[in-house]
């Protein structure tokens, strides 16, 4: 029921128009945009029917009473339920009876207070919208003039204009002081230098399977398989293992040489076996998903996708550039080896901007 359906004499004495409802300014030459004001106020059923208002009042009181009962139950549970008693609650299984009772009663007590307050506000409190005009926040001209005069007076009394020696040394002290903060930056540790641009891969390092810890031969790599490798000599119990593997982690995949479209990729591979950095060039997550049919690898963090048959270029997602490729070959004993380090920094593109 809206106020339009109610006879005028039954409406409450308060009129919405008193609060700026309806148009409050018309357009003219000085002000070409009319202020539409607030929409007409609609009376709620509780505003015009005392019985409905009483019903709402009872609902609110009932919710507040429920909250009181729940609080009493909370205290009673705390006092009476032993600490080690457990109960079965589907689907949680066996849980502490005390924790369950405390959680439930506290939850009901808080919920009932909130629900009661919301129902009270929505049905019984005044819902007339009021436009409150903003006042200018600028200070009065007299106040501004006084502040300026006080400032000039202060400057004059400090004799800063006359005492040039004090003024010069003060500015010197203020300018130098922040340098002490700059010096503290040294505590962040030694500068990384070029360390982040290189990995421990070098010419002749064997490609070692991270799972078996054995060097790999080309015959160990089946077409379509994905294998994770580390450089020979890097062991898990090495002190700097995490630091080094974070840059040197490599994945190798065997493709049919005919499927490799990128000429450099083909030249840096061995019998279709290609080795790429496993560190995503977006923000450095380890790449782990390989789609055999499409030759795509996918980063699980933000779904960047790289095409391993085409120089690992980015075909989808936020990564900024292709995965760096490691040039590989086979040594005299038939093991896969690196033919050098990566020729670009691995991981996020940040280092390329330096
Ligand atoms: S870290 Fe790989 S897509 Fe974001």
Automatic annotation (TrEMBL):
The keyword Metal-binding applies. Keywords: 2Fe-2S, Cell membrane, Disulfide bond, Electron transport, Iron, Iron-sulfur, Membrane, Metal-binding, Oxidoreductase, Respiratory chain, Transmembrane, Transmembrane helix, Transport. Residues 12-21 have a biased composition (Basic and acidic residues). Residues 1-42 are annotated as: Disordered. Residues 247-337 form the Rieske domain. It is a multi-pass membrane protein. Its main location: membrane. It is found in: Cell membrane. The chain crosses the membrane at residues 59-81, 101-121, 165-185. The cytochrome bc1 complex is composed of a cytochrome b (QcrB), the Rieske iron-sulfur protein (QcrA) and a diheme cytochrome c (QcrC) subunit. Iron-sulfur subunit of the cytochrome bc1 complex, an essential component of the respiratory electron transport chain required for ATP synthesis. The bc1 complex catalyzes the oxidation of menaquinol and the reduction of cytochrome c in the respiratory chain. The bc1 complex operates through a Q-cycle mechanism that couples electron transfer to generation of the proton gradient that drives ATP synthesis. This is Cytochrome bc1 complex Rieske iron-sulfur subunit. The lineage of its organism: Bacteria, Bacillati, Actinomycetota, Actinomycetes, Kitasatosporales.
